[in-house]
Amino acid sequence: MDLSFYDKPACAERRGRLAARLGNRPALIAAGASRPRGTHRGLHPFRAASHFLYLFGLHLEKAVGLWTGEGWQVFLPEPGPDAALWTGPVPGFAELGEILGVSVLATAKLQEALKPGTATLPSPDVETCVEQSTLLGREIRPGKLAAVDEPLADALIELRLVHDRAGIAGLREAAQATTAAHAEGLRAIRTGIRESVVRAAIEAELVARNMTTSFNSIVSVHGEVLHNEDHHFTLADGDLLLVDAGAETAGGWAGDVTRTWPVSGHYSPTQRDLYDVVLSAQTAAIAAIKPGRRYLELQGIAARAIADGLVGLGILRGDPAELVSDGVVALFFPHGVGHLVGLDVHDLDDLGDRATYAPGRTRSTDPGLKALRLDRDLVPGMAVTVEPGCYQVPAILDDPERTRVAKDRLRRDRLAAFRDVRGIRIEDTILVTADGHDNLNAELPKATSAIEAAMRAT
Amino acid sequence: MDLSFYDKPACAERRGRLAARLGNRPALIAAGASRPRGTHRGLHPFRAASHFLYLFGLHLEKAVGLWTGEGWQVFLPEPGPDAALWTGPVPGFAELGEILGVSVLATAKLQEALKPGTATLPSPDVETCVEQSTLLGREIRPGKLAAVDEPLADALIELRLVHDRAGIAGLREAAQATTAAHAEGLRAIRTGIRESVVRAAIEAELVARNMTTSFNSIVSVHGEVLHNEDHHFTLADGDLLLVDAGAETAGGWAGDVTRTWPVSGHYSPTQRDLYDVVLSAQTAAIAAIKPGRRYLELQGIAARAIADGLVGLGILRGDPAELVSDGVVALFFPHGVGHLVGLDVHDLDDLGDRATYAPGRTRSTDPGLKALRLDRDLVPGMAVTVEPGCYQVPAILDDPERTRVAKDRLRRDRLAAFRDVRGIRIEDTILVTADGHDNLNAELPKATSAIEAAMRAT
Q: Does B207 contact A196 at a Cβ distance shorter than 8 Å?
């Protein structure tokens, strides 16, 4: 059992803080089960659900953590007679109890330990939700909370929004691996190879560190497809390669970085122009990060910088502020400027806007804001991404309905000169600090000149 | 949409053969849904369920193939308004119908197209099983067939047991990639690195080919743990590194190979002795493969070779045939000699022994046979692994209950000399041919001298 990433005091402290918020209200936190790959018996590697991992620190399959209102217990299936043969020696319940600092009991005893009104949070996997439903006698499913679950959700949101010492160390470890992986990807680029070859270089760096990816890597010459998970295209000389990839540490902490590299080693003048627009947006949004800043403002700052840039390049005309507020900029920058990062890459996403929007704030229906995943006031210890982009998406720009808002402010004759730019995004993971912010990926080249120099050096 | 791996005529022929077997009995084949990773919204890459993939050839998420009794139809969710933005342009239903050679309709129309008594097979994921249950008005869950489903299961078993031209091409492609990946792993070995570094070299070769793994790679200096998925140990000079890893092609075909390499580049005399025992068992079992051979016999052939070898080394004494039949050999070789390979690495495993044991045969309770996954008579076009092993598993050898059967035939004083061997397994994927067999991994070094030569050459 690999305990190298386990931080016992941090977990004990987190449980203590959660218990203080819950008081005598019981709560059940499930670790979940392995997900099936090809068949129900061929499984993906197990990774505990993040709420469980936050509180107990270990990937204990099918474990359940229980707050009885008076103390913590962990319930685990009894290992079968051949478990040691197939999956190696596992600590007994007594030894595991020592490791966790919590008494460990057999799952068979869970039902009788449950009190009425026990709160829970839906597991990511439906199989475990079905078991939670049976245990608690009510329907538990992903994305749905009952009233009794809300205080538990809100307490965990409050805790997990602001990372503790161990969490920050995990995020730094993830960021460092992510930076190294991107550097390997950059080194692998050459004309004529498939996208998958660059992906292999990136992910090998993570696997070698005994990590995994925090999400399915995007490594694509079609950066205009925002969640493009294909990797079969061949890199051509004039292409930009958009790489959005991040590490997940053994302890579960996520990294998330995007770079957009020129396959040839040199940006064309048009690519450089648009790249610099996106970089100016990212730089301005990062610069604004400090305690007390409302995250939503970063969206406006980035969008305004893109408006200014596109007007400067003659692609848009008109008043930049109106181009943002009318949703014209959103034709090119149709997604949110970022999200929380933690034990999930879109941290707390399982709890939706309840977690990521401050109480009283709801998601806007504006084209430039509807995809924004986060609107809280920043606090030291929060980690967020900043990831503006600029894309020529045919499904948007060729749609008269979507582009109607632009009227004559979109200069298609001028835009045609930029046809060698399909999609650019630049993203770092940023920690909010007491006096501002700390870019956890600061070492990874980002300016066009720095990227070109790094590519020449390979 | 990557169609490079799609074989339209092969899929059409398979559907035709299945339809001929089903006649007017309707059947529903689900592709399944992406499995959640950390949260229910962060997903593993989608991979269609194998029965669907066999018949339709493409990874169409949430698709359902329907045999109405008269013709084939495919049902798919209507893409949302922003689908092209997030996941790129997808062919419309009409265009996809051309690609598939089957009419494609919206999932909303599936319920009304269903006839009473429609058969199905449980999807690997519970989420899709729940949807199947709703559609068909009865409980569908993994590992469980209703009477109405049995003819469908049996028809697909009959087809998928014997690979067609396209299937064999897919298996060869997977085997070739698997061989190349193992060769990269061997090149990466050096004292002092972590297991994960070797794993990274292996998997990078697969990812670069736009493939994935067909199961979670085992890369372990603790080969005595049969399904060891930890990769955090450091390679030491006297260790053997057991690597069990395989490719899955873009079209879903699996490779599966095990090698056991000496970290130092040289097997110790004791390691060499036991390695040669396992290799002799594997060689003998492979040599026996030909049409008409009962697969169960390979277990006996391999076990007998291990008995002979262990007696020859003085670790066991007594009559080799009795050592096999009494279960003494199973103390060292406690698993089955192999399994089917196809679109799943344990092919047809979702249908259990119904698929992998011939009608009328049931699984033995003998220690040496109870873990055997396959007992059919071999037919040209079948693909199987042959993977004997020899392990010192503390949970077995230190258990007086389990070892009682050996009586004085286990010479522990002699066994003590072999303490630098924790686990050895050697595995290839073998295609049954008209005149015998074809080892799909024949190019990968296997003899100790060949492995040592390959390691010297790196």
A: yes
